[in-house]
Design a protein that fits this description.
By secondary structure, the protein is α+β, with helices and mostly antiparallel strands. The protein is built from 9 helices and 4 strands, in the order ααβαβαβαβαααα.
Length: 304
């Protein structure tokens, strides 16, 4: 009987404040959607770092024939200059930092150049002698790439030192900024959700002030009186959370899986597994949001 009464009161409250309940659902949905997007963005950054940081190489390009880079003076790196770089990479100072070194010959560089350029007419005017010898260095700790760059930049016969982090770091930066923007918007919307839930519960409690007074007089407990109002807020917030989860599933399936992933095949993206991980987080966040907002309102408006 108690449960039936509580749920009948919940139904009355949702019916009386239908517009406010819908507003709570929408605001909760939007705020938790931003939280979910931020969570997925963080997972994407972690996944890409895991995929790429171990594979990142620092490439040391030696001067090639007719190289226009100022440090080369249009002269090809001499044999002793190449030997000096090779020796330095295996020295006691740098060896502990280096996982492995691959030396790419002119012939291998020319072959890779043809694969990359394909049918481009420039391949007809390019010869093997125009290709540079290079050293591709993989580090034990990719974060220490700057040490290799500092050691070999300006070394005689070295045209340039390139770190692949320069390619992927801007992408990480964009994703990180998107995550921070999502968290900022989520914070604003969560405040709005708390205010809306508080207002909705307050209006519901004020509209049933007489019934609440009678229940208090006949000895009903505070929990029994407050339960219908708290359930109202929880149901509205939970509905918003489920809509947010559904939107994340659709976004990952159609936007990431159907559009972004096929265009960027060189890396992996978050999928349904990550959305399932975020699901309980969003549901619990919605319930906590509703409970905190409801408790704040009910402390005053269910007193006799």
């Amino acid at each position: 009987m108690k449960l039936r009464f509580i749920f009948s009161e919940v139904g009355k409250g949702l019916t009386r404040n239908r517009a406010m309940s819908v507003a709570v659902i929408i605001v909760t949905f939007v705020s938790l959607l931003f939280v979910g997007v931020a969570g997925l963005a963080q997972m994407q950054v972690n996944r890409m770092k895991s995929d790429w940081y171990d594979k990142i190489e620092v490439s040391i390009y030696m001067c090639a024939q007719g190289d226009e880079i100022p440090s080369c003076n249009a002269e090809e790196a001499a044999g002793d200059q190449i030997d000096a770089v090779r020796t330095k990479l295996t020295s006691g100072e740098l060896a502990p930092l280096i996982k492995d070194v691959y030396e790419e010959s002119k012939e291998e560089a020319f072959e890779n150049f043809q694969k990359i350029m394909g049918e481009n007419p420039i391949t007809q005017w390019t010869t093997v002698d125009m290709m540079p010898i290079s050293f591709r260095v993989r580090l034990v700790d990719p974060q220490q790439y700057s040490i290799i760059k500092e050691e070999f930049s300006g070394t005689p016969g070295v045209a340039q030192v390139k770190d692949q982090r320069e390619i992927v770091e801007p992408l990480f930066s964009v994703i990180d900024k998107a995550k921070l923007m999502s968290l900022g918007l989520a914070g604003v919307m969560i405040v709005a959700a708390i205010l809306l839930i508080t207002t909705t519960i307050r209006l519901s409690a004020m509209s049933r002030e007489r019934e609440t007074s009678i229940m208090r007089l006949v000895g009903a407990s505070s929990l029994f009186i407050q339960a219908p109002f708290m359930i109202e807020g929880a149901l509205a917030a939970l509905t918003g959370a489920l809509l947010a989860v559904g939107s994340l599933f659709l976004g990952v399936k159609f936007v990431i899986g159907g559009w972004i992933a096929p265009a960027f095949k060189w890396t992996s993206f978050v999928g349904m597994r990550e959305v399932w991980i975020m699901t309980p987080v969003l549901v619990v966040a919605a319930l906590l949001l509703a409970v905190v907002a409801s408790a704040f309102s009910l402390a005053k408006y269910t007193k006799v």
